[in-house]
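Fold it.
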Amino acid sequence: MQFARINDITLHYQVIGAANDKPVLVFANSLGTDFRIWRDVIVRFAGDFAIVLYDKRGHGLSDIGDVPYSMDLHVSDLAGLLDLLSVKQAIVCGLSVGGLIAQGLYAARPDLLRALILCDTAHKIGTVESWDARIATVEQSGIASIADSVLEKWFTPAFRRPENNAYHGYRNMLVRQPVTGYTGTCAAIRDADFTEAAKRIAVPTLCVVGDQDGSTPPDLVLSTAKLVPGARYEVIRDAGHIPCVEQPEALTAVLRAFIDIVLSGEKGHE
């Protein structure tokens, strides 16, 4: 396990190395999860890319720090980690709130990115009312009180079948996140709006979504793709909000095809 002091907290992260000439892939995960959700994707990329994963503040093994959070603070954490690791010109893949962090990172530190992958995310997610209601419920009754409704959005009915041990494991991951870290990040999502910033993204961008995503449905992700100049849009079949868990092979194939286009385009301009 690897830990770093970034801003005012200790962040848990992992670096999977590769040859110095290999591109760097950075993964930012969703609300209520830790970086283990990417496991079945990164094993398919290891060796071909250097990989950086991390637990955002308030999640996994990272510190909670002061709450509530702002999206700028989450962005600053990731920028600080990449600076510490001397990473520049990375391909950043963010899922859900991780996609908001990725958009914010481009807006604040475009030197850190060569391409964006916005996975099951949007320029704006939810409403002030919906996030305030969720925060109030979780503060009063805990994450377990909303777990079933959240998991219905995360995963397809086929994945949620009672005999699927993985489903129960991911439920454990959700309900065991710190309540204050969860609600603090809910506040950051509530207050984030990248509608105008998305129009100014000038790096290759892929927007990808599970066809049964109940948190950021395909139409919402498509609306984000339409804001970003030249963005590509792909749908992963038989997946909910977290296709890296349900359909890692299909997601990896889509990501690799996009990355190949990015890299070949860069070589064409050399």
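The radius of gyration is 17 Å.
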